[in-house]
């Protein structure tokens, strides 16, 4: 097997992740899950939490808080387990898949969805998941128990879900080992310029302004954050160390796929993600 170029797995994941996560902001997911009775005005939290947690089955808020990490337990408890009394996890998962199908057809187009390249991308991504291990990978393991859809574009969406959650589970291990709590993780990520805008952070994560202010004080005391909210050099170094450690925990699927396969999957995923972004799959004010 040819060794991977440095950073190849991280770069591939950077284009695979949006293929999955674009759905969270789509009108299709709001419509499909909303038709089950979940959601309504400003319903991002209920729909997001129900859709992503449904793979666990009828769990309470504890496992969801533990595995989602960056969301407050209070926010999660507002919706979990109440959503299971409105719609079953199975019905929510089916709605989620219908939403993915509709969004991808709308933004990528029928020709792309039915193309040989889409089938190739799905085959490559699924092959990468063959090397993923369930051990200590809670969200990955839950989604890995779900069936692979037949349609190539949905098989690719399923595979990107698995690869996204696999990397995410590993990243949480790294954060915990580094002594970074959920609020501190959000703040240091935002300070890199790659995180959510304040508006979307407040809308989606459930932390209060006081929670964020306390987190900033802890990071100031640790010498990781400047008073203006930017990262110190120690903070910059820590964030890069966290990503490097995450890469090491995330290398198995990309090593299994091999250098040529990773390069081809990256090329295909970049094209699809670019089309999704240009089509307005993500809010214009999401980053900040």
From TrEMBL:
This is SalK. It comes from Streptomyces abikoensis. InterPro entries: HTH_67 (IPR054058).
């Amino acid at each position: 097997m040819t060794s991977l170029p440095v950073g190849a797995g991280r770069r591939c994941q950077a284009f695979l992740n949006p293929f999955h996560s674009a759905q969270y902001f789509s009108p299709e997911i709001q419509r499909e899950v909303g038709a089950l009775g979940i959601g309504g005005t400003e319903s991002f939290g209920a729909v997001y939490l129900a859709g992503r947690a449904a793979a666990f089955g009828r769990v309470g808020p504890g496992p969801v808080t533990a595995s989602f990490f960056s969301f407050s337990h209070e926010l999660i408890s507002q919706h979990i387990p109440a959503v299971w009394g409105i719609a079953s996890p199975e019905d929510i998962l089916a709605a989620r898949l219908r939403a993915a199908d509709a969004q991808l057809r709308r933004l990528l187009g029928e020709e792309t969805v039915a193309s040989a390249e889409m089938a190739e991308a799905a085959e490559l991504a699924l092959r990468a998941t063959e090397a993923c291990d369930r051990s200590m990978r809670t969200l990955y393991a839950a989604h890995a128990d779900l069936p692979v859809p037949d349609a190539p574009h949905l098989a690719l969406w399923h595979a990107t879900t698995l690869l996204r959650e696999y990397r995410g589970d590993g990243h949480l291990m790294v954060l915990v080992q580094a002594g970074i709590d959920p609020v501190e993780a959000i703040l240091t990520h935002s300070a890199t310029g790659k995180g959510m805008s304040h508006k979307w952070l407040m809308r989606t994560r459930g932390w209060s302004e006081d929670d964020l202010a306390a987190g900033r004080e802890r990071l100031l005391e640790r010498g990781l954050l400047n008073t203006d909210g930017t990262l110190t050099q120690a903070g910059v170094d820590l964030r890069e160390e966290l990503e490097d450690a995450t890469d090491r925990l995330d290398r198995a699927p990309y090593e299994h796929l091999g250098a040529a396969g990773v390069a081809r999957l990256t090329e295909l995923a970049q094209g699809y993600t670019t089309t999704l972004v240009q089509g307005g799959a993500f809010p214009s004010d999401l980053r900040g």
